[in-house]
Amino acid sequence: MSDKYNKDEESFIQKIQNKTGCLFLVIGVAMLAFVLTDLTSSGGSIFGSTANSVGTIGGEQIAYDDFNNRFEAMKQQIAQNNPGFVMSEDISKQYNDEAWNLLIQSKTIDLEYEKLGIDVSPAELEDLTIGNNTDPQIMQSFTNPETGQPDKQRLVRFLKEDINQDPNAKASWLAFQNQFVAGLKAKKYSTLIGGSYYATDLDAKYKNLENSKTINASVVALPYAQNSDSSITVSDSEILSYAKEYKDKYEQKASRDIEYVKIDVTPSREDSAKMMEWGTEVAEKFRNEKDDSAFVSIMSSETPYDPSYMVRGTFSADIENKIFGANVGEVVGPLEKNGTYSVFKVTDSGTDTLRSVKGSHIQFGVAGIDTAKAEGEARELLAKIRSGATTFEAEAATKNFDASRATGGDMGWVREGSGAYPTRLINRLFNSGVDNYVVVRSSRGVHLAKATSSVSRKTVQVALIDQTIYPSTKTDGESYKKAGQLLTRVNKENSFESVAETLVLTKRVAGKVTESNPAIPALKNPSKLTRWLFDAEISTGDISPILDMNGSYVVAHLVKINEEGLPSAEDLRVAIEPLVKNRKLGEQLKSKVETALANASSAEALAKELGTVVSALPAASFGASNIPYVGQDDAISGAIFGVPVGGHSDVIVGKSAVAVVYVNNENEYQKGDLTIIKDQISREGAQEARGLASEALKQKAKVKDQRYRFYD
After folding, report:
1. Per-residue pLDDT tens for 10-22?
2. Which of 135, 467, 556, 695 is the most buried (most CB within 10 A)?
3. Residue 162 domain-assigned (yes or no)
4. C-alpha to C-alpha distance for 208 and 348, rounded to whole angstroms
5. Is residue 369 domain-shared with residue 454, that is, in the same domain?
6. Whether the Cβ atoms of residue 558 and residue 538 lie closer than 8 Å to each other
7. 435 DSSP assignment
8. Shortest CA distance to 444 belongs to which of 359, 362, 357?
9. How many domains does the chain have?
10. Which domain, by its residues, includes 536?
11. Domain check: are 456 and 496 in the same one?
């Protein structure tokens, strides 16, 4: 937007949110990019010591203080624009990741924008804001509530008047404006990258051949698997030489191999018994309490007091009847469910304006059959159920495809007008009486159903006190003690594995744990362990201290340090030794095949000379050329398309065999429209290029993420 509307640099979000009711529409990721970009351009200290670094981008050390300021600014912006929003640990981690990604963007893609001169001019921004081409994203935020249509005058009034009277609105608008500009730049960059890709007529020609052309060929091969030579050996130097030849495939990042034990600290039976005692005491006090809402607060219930009147189906099935069957003033509980102990007190009852009923059904779909036939099937099944030949629950578990499939057809309590099940079905259940079967047509098919309760209009007002069980200090101490026993008993005579087995602890393993991707089975957030693993003072064979990780204790043993670059010959041998052996064997077999080929006039003659068979490939193609007895071998398959009809190849030393290819003829094929194919290649290539561009910039920058050093 032009400076005639904004002279101070701040933003708009809260105002738009108030008008649209969409809390996160404008405070999303891109808005937050503005906060980071602003701080990035402020000249803060990026260059710090390695020890105080959260990582490197393009060889530049990113200091913890610098990154954390951005992260905290992001969280503060979220809090300001979302009063009452609770930043949980999981959400905080998401924003931490977002702050890091935006920092990477500012130091990679944003630099490309500058180099290429990609920008949004004030005139362009004004045109897209209040001009003739207002962006739909902006107009959606300024809709006339009466007409439901975009109101540009409202937008102009806001920019001329409202933001000058509200500093927060002005700040939010500038944040949104910068987000909008960033989006436009990204779009321009994407268009530029996509537009730089094009396909030639030759590309289209060969793509057509790849898709359509097939060749009738014959292959005479000596597979390595059938001609092995036990005398062939491979030295360490040969292993390393092969790895260097294909270093892109075999080079590795610095990583660690570990074995570890995770001891979950879970409540004991004694803890559960004490919680039940707590619940019993609460229930006794609750019965005599007069101010129920105050008592719920005093007892620090995890669920706050709710004076609403609850209808049938509000509570879990195992306590529903107990609560609705209780008298006013009666206490139900304590009850335990999924580690939460609850005490309920019925404080009042009332009458619902709508009916509720509990029922079960078996549904018969009518797709492909008429409704009358489905009704007939329902009545036949009802006869079998009544005779005992089958059960209602078993049939529902196989025939239903809604949530009741898992409950034997039980629909639970259904309230009138809820829309959970067809109205016609529920109305029949209201009038059928308990356990009386009915066959009902509905918009979903035919139902064999029954009401499993009488019709209810009762509502209850319930005060609830609940607490989740946590391990006691004693239980926690016992788990910590066991971790300590593991730590102290491991020595030269007692391996980590044997001590874990003695203590009845499950030993786990994790290989190739890297700094950038420290995925360790059973550990949700392994930052503490990663921090220890990549400490410069830690050596192979070291045992970690006891690590407190999200309610569990972890002790790890560093088995191996894998340095960055090519692994050792020992580590590579399993993967590379067979390949080098095949290469050597191939050279041996090549001489044998060359001698036989000199005396053979056909594929059959060559096969006879070598004591093998001719593999027929009646329709070999670029995309599918699996060779009998050989499998996929690109060197051999590729040769098929380079041999003239009636000729044969030289001896080919492939990945799986030594072979000679004979081309019998080219099969007829329908040539495609090269213009269409060319267009398709261009579109697909442009799309792929757009997707790879940012990733290529990140790879070039050699991003190293070490945030685990500071954030758990």
Report:
1. 333 333 333 333 3
2. 556
3. yes
4. 78
5. yes
6. yes
7. T
8. 362
9. 4
10. 255-264+477-562
11. no
